[in-house]
Amino acid sequence: MKGVDRGRSAGTGALCVLAASVLWGTTGTAATFAPEVGPLAIGAVAMGLGGLLQALAAARPTVRDVPRLLARRGTVLLGAVSVAVYPLAFYSSMRLAGVAVGTVVSIGTAPLASAVIERVVDRRRLTRRWILAAFLGLLGTVLLCVAEAAHASDGAGRRSVAGMLLGVGLGLVAAATYALYSWAAHRLITSGIPSRAAMGAVFGLGGLLLVPVLLATGAPLVDSWSNAAVGFYMALVPMFAGYVLFGWGLAHVPASTATTLSLLEPAVAAVLAVLVVGERLPVAGWTGIALVIMCLAVLTAPTGAGATVRDEVTHPSDAPVPAQARTAEG
Fold first, then answer.
1. CB-based contacts of 314: which residues, under 8 Å, 6+ apart?
2. How far apart are alpha carbons 156 and 148 in whole angstroms?
3. How far is residue 310's CA from residue 261's CA, in Å, rounded to a whole number?
4. Tens digit of each residue's pLDDT (9 = 90 or more) over 146-188
5. Cβ contact 205:56 at 8 Å
6. How far apart are CA 289 and CA 144, in angstroms?
7. Distance between CA atoms of 99 and 67, rounded to whole angstroms?
8. Does residue 313 carry a pLDDT above 60?
9. Residue 68 in contact with residue 193, Cβ under 8 Å?
10. pLDDT at site 120
11. What pLDDT digit, counting tens, does each position of 118-129 carry?
12. Bridge partner residues of 125 (DSSP)
């Protein structure tokens, strides 16, 4: 019975991460509606304001857990710094390399970074199922990148190869920081801190770090109602609501599994880039999206009684997760 309950819990966590990924997949397209707003301002208002809102919404549980958060201040600070760096690299990557490639590189390589962190720090071992899912997802992201890079270099695209390469490099920085703050939040949650308090502390501090960037670059956000609307949408929907869902998901699945499930984001972003922004996506790109969907199917499909996505990365000690960490209650 306990195994069934854990399976349902992990399934709910996976659905929360997938829902968050759909919301995040809209950010690149939304940013194109404010072209005069620079990527640093977009990133600062999205993650900065969104993080502060998350901290405000979780103020009560965060204050209640201040002693435990202070005891793990190194993890909190690592997560906060990563939260601050991630959006600056992510949105700059999309501006330079395009919505599809920027999102694909930033999110597509995050599972590998998460796996390395968990293997080195937490000594988790990777199962064949997770490796297969990650391989399919990464192959899909590579195909999407190749398709967009070919479009940029054949003269039909408007982006230079140099800009594409710089965008890809910033995407890798975004992937590393995404993996780090996901790991940090998961580490806090599994230590017994409720997900609302953990996410509120990490994202609240990260939001504070982004305030100077917003003050320095955010003037265009108030130049028109459309720019302001984009900023508020980014902060409230994909960042605030999305990361609340992500926090709930991290209470039930490891960070490496969550970042692998997040591979849905680049698929959503690529489709929206084609349907809304007007970017072209060759057959190779659509094949990449199909492989990402296969990756998600492999990772989330049950394999037997009590089997869950939580089992895809296992710890040698099989230590139980504290009861407090399995709830999202504040």
1. 124, 125, 127
2. 11
3. 12
4. 776 666 555 545 556 777 788 889 988 999 999 999 899 989 9
5. no
6. 7
7. 41
8. no
9. yes
10. 81
11. 878 877 777 787
12. 314
pLDDT tens by residue, 295-306? 777 766 665 544
Residue 38 has phi, psi (to 5 degrees) of: -70, 160
The secondary structure element, H or E, covering residue 125 is strand 125-126
**Cα-based torsion angle of the residue sequence 209, 64, 185, 47 in order, rounded to the nearest 10 degrees:** -30
Measure Cα distances from 247 to 46, 97, 120, 254, 327 in Å. 17, 29, 23, 11, 10
Residue 231: how many other CB atoms lie within 10 Å:
25
Residue 26, CA distances (Å) to 141, 190, 328 in order: 17, 30, 25
**Beta-bridge mates of residue 126:** 313
DSSP designation for 321: P
Task: Using a cut of 0.85, tell me whether the model's pTM lies above it.
Answer: no
Query: Which secondary structure element, helix H or strand E, spans residue 140, and what is its range?
Result: helix 128-153
Angle at 116 (CA atoms; ends 140, 21), nearest 5 degrees: 45
From the list 202, 174, 196, 183, the residue with the least C-alpha distance to 265 is: 174
Q: What is the distance between the alpha carbons of residues 219 and 18, in angstroms, rounded to a whole number?
A: 34
Tell me the DSSP string of 238-263. Answer: IIIIHHHHHHHHHTTS-HHHHHHHTT
Q: How far apart are CA 50 and CA 236, in angstroms?
A: 6
| Backbone angle region of 302, left / alpha / beta, with phi > 0 → left and psi within -120 to 50 → alpha | beta
pLDDT reading at 84 higher than 90 = yes
Determine the average pLDDT of the residues in 276-290.
77
C-alpha angle 251/257/258, rounded to 5°? 55
Q: How many CB atoms lie within 10 A of CB 165?
A: 14
Alpha-carbon distance of 244 to 58, in angstroms, equals: 10
Q: What percent of the chain stands above pLDDT 70?
A: 82
202: left (phi over 0), alpha (psi -120 to 50) or beta: alpha
The CA angle 62-67-70, to the nearest 5 degrees, is 90
